[in-house]
Amino acid sequence: MVAIAFVVGTWIAERRAIKYEIPKSIISDLSLVLIIAAIVGGRISYVVENLDYYAKSPGQIFKVWEGGLIFYGGFAAAVLFGIIFLKKRQVNVLKVIDIVAPSVALGLGIARIGCFLNGCCFGKHTHLPWGVIFPADSPAGWAFGKVIRVHPTQIYETLAAVCMFLILLTVEKKNRPNGYLFGLFLALYGGWRFFVDFLRHYDSKAYVLLGLTHNQITSMSLFLFSLWFMQFLYKKQKKT
Question: Is 57 helix (H, G, I), strand (E, B) or coil?
Fold first, then answer.
């Protein structure tokens, strides 16, 4: 599903590049940088978060196909190396991040289907009728020690990501400064992720401050940064 997400995202971004007058080849090359950076960054973050296990079983570190990628780790690495790549190719960074923003949103939604099929990133126990019962030999079964109904937080994220994709395409039709679309994606995802994590299951060690998880703290920081970033873009546009 991660592979499908990147293929679909790249296909959409390449066609969007025409509108922004960016060569299609730039997007094609950028996609290779992003997929490698995202997988490596996401895996490193997951390994660091579960260092006790991987210290005892180092051979498991490279088994990415068994799952174990953290979105924020992969996202940070992709942004960093993506910007470096674009700077070296002397391309307008703000234009390109607007081109790829909808692709990132939709790609995230597709990848979360993979999380659902893998049984990871599941939610807390629920009595709601749409709660999902995962097999006993799945991560959910291991976490709770029994088969129970849990929130399908992976599907929640998929639905939210599709909504974000549509919102970004709608907002794009209005006159906005370059980079605004990407900033809006950060705000939408950061805000959404903060709230959905209240329904997601975490080990006790994940709660680090005031009953919040490290992902929630990261999400809120991302949300606040995005507000500043969008305001900065408007001020920059006004000056020019």
Answer: coil
